[in-house]
Write a structure and sequence with these properties.
Blueprint (H helix, E strand, L loop, with lengths): L2 H16 L11 H7 L3 E5 L2 E6 L1 H8 L12 H14 L10
Antiparallel strand pairs: 1-2
Length: 97
């Protein structure tokens, strides 16, 4: 969705919410949730794991970071993966997205 249409949709949802309507949204975007939601539920494998305000959930679970990197050659990628796993031993996943 382009930025103009996204803003139009966000404004429409916000107006509906402010008029007292309940709106259920599914999203992977925390930016979208921050802009539109007063309460969030996080689901894992189809089960609700937590419920709260965006600020509450960010303060409780906000210690997760996502790093996206583009490299030109496979050998540079392997060097980078080695550096990251050595520097951040708790890293959980490497993969293309």
């Amino acid at each position: 969705m382009d930025p103009v249409v996204r803003r139009l949709l966000w404004n429409t949802v916000t107006q509906a919410r402010e008029s007292g309507k309940v709106i259920v949204i599914t999203s992977h975007s925390m930016e979208e949730c921050d802009a539109l939601c007063t309460r969030l539920a996080i689901m894992v494998k189809g089960r609700f794991m937590c419920l709260g305000s965006p600020q509450h959930l960010k303060s409780k679970f906000g210690n997760v970071y996502i790093l996206k990197v583009k490299v030109k050659t496979e050998d540079k990628l392997q060097d980078f993966k080695f550096y990251i796993t050595r520097t951040f031993p708790d890293v959980r996943h490497f993969g293309a997205s």
